[in-house]
Amino acid sequence: MNYTYDAFICHASEDKDKFVRELAERLQKRGFNIWYDEFTLKIGDSLLKKISEGLLQSKYGIVIFSKAFFEKQWTERELAGLSALEKPGEKKILPIYLGLDVEDIKHKYPTLTDLYAADASKGIEFVVNELISVIKQENDTSAIKEDDSNQRAYLYPTAFFEDRVAEAFPGIRGIHSIENKEEIIERLNTVLQEPLEFKGFYPPLNLYTMRGLFNIGRYRRLDKKRILIHYSELVPKRLIVYRPELYWQYFIYLECEKDIPTGLYNTDAKDEEYAINGNGELVSRQEYNDGSMYRNGKIIPLVNPELRIRYLAPTNYFIASRASPMNIVQFDRHRKALLQDILKRNITIEDFVSVFQHLPKHDSDI
Fold it and tell me: Which positions are annotated as active-site residues?
């Protein structure tokens, strides 16, 4: 069976702040697709429907056993759902003990005491590594490795990015800035050329933004001044490539100017989420969510709508590999503030590099 998520995290809400949220974030940063309510649920979603879908579409269930877990009916329902989905001889439930031990579990779930559990008292990094040793092994054995480039993009994302940067910026070393829009787009056309996705693997390149990080699974030039990365429509203004001696430190800084409003909204928002219907007509995010639009007195179903985000204020991003030092906790805590400071010219790229170059390698980089 093909699963959408590597793992579903079953937990009590009381444990989010002290353990679960960081666990989910660390697993996500290591390249795994995790069903976690704060990542997955959106306003208006049916909790029961989404959780049921998450359970069905997840290869594993990470269960955080704690005192609070025992006091919740909802967590027990999720655990029951995972148990029901478990097939003979299949590993489904990955238990973690948070402030408990096997004796505590024995009184509540005696049938689960024969499962090896990761002990949270040994530290979150220990737990993450224990989980990855199981999840990654399954991913590696089930993945379809079609050719050398496929495997290279998965195992060596920094080397994959190095090849793309070398092709797009031949002869350039150190810090190099470009402000010609046509040249910027031409360089990005090379860096982000197909393929960006490989069957069975996570995309090797990430877009690091003020909102978070996103896999770059798609890119295309929209017109003379716009490009599309992920779901974001961008109007490039300035590009800076950093190409030092250490290839795993490569990154691209992309600064974009404000775009024009779509005309769908009467607000002063900094961005607009909308969609392009199959016939080319623009529709609001609300219409996209509802699957239809009302035009000329008729309700018209949407056909293959494509979600977009348009930015009405200057924005900036980093483009780097999935195993870049940007994808570690030490950097992530300051990513938004650093991007804001560069955009506002409070600091220069040279200032940023003086800090960035001291970050350690990502622990998944080979």
Answer: 78
DSSP characters for 255-292? EE------SS--S--SEEEEEE-TTS-EEEHHHHHHTE
Using DSSP's 3-state secondary structure scheme, residue 200 falls into coil
Dihedrals phi, psi of 147, to nearest 5 degrees: -160, 180
> How far is the C-alpha of 214 from the C-alpha of 237, rounded, in Å?
21
> Which residues, at least 6 apart from 227, have a Cβ–Cβ distance to it below 8 Å?
185, 188, 219, 220, 221, 233, 234, 236
Residue stretches of the chain with pLDDT short of 50: 140-148, 152, 154
Query: Which pLDDT score is estimated for 143?
Result: 36
Cβ 165 vs Cβ 191: under 8 Å = yes
Give DSSP secondary structure letters for 127-147. Answer: HHHHHHHHHHHHHHHHS---S
Separation between Cα atoms, residue 187 and residue 190, nearest integer Å = 5
Task: Note the pLDDT of residue 241.
Answer: 98
Omega of the bond leading into 195 within 30 degrees of 0 (cis): yes
pLDDT at 357: 92
C-alpha distances (whole Å) from 217 to each of 31, 97, 140, 202 are: 13, 36, 20, 9
Q: How far apart are CA 119 and CA 141, in angstroms?
A: 26
pLDDT of residue 77: 85
- Residues in Cβ contact with 97 at an 8 Å cutoff, skipping those fewer than 6 apart: 65, 104, 105, 117, 118, 119, 120, 121
Residue 365: per-residue pLDDT: 66
For residue 124, how far is the Cα from the chain centroid? 20
Rounded CA gap, 317 and 214, in Å?
11
**Partner residues linked to 298 by β-bridges:** 295
Give the ranges where the chain is alpha helix by DSSP (H).
21-29, 37-40, 47-56, 67-70, 73-85, 102-108, 124-142, 148-155, 157-168, 181-191, 285-290, 329-332, 335-343, 349-356
Backbone angles phi, psi at 102, to 5 degrees: -60, -30
Output the pLDDT for position 141: 39
Residue type present at position 8:
F
Backbone angles phi, psi at 274, to 5 degrees: -150, -175
pTM, 2 dp: 0.60
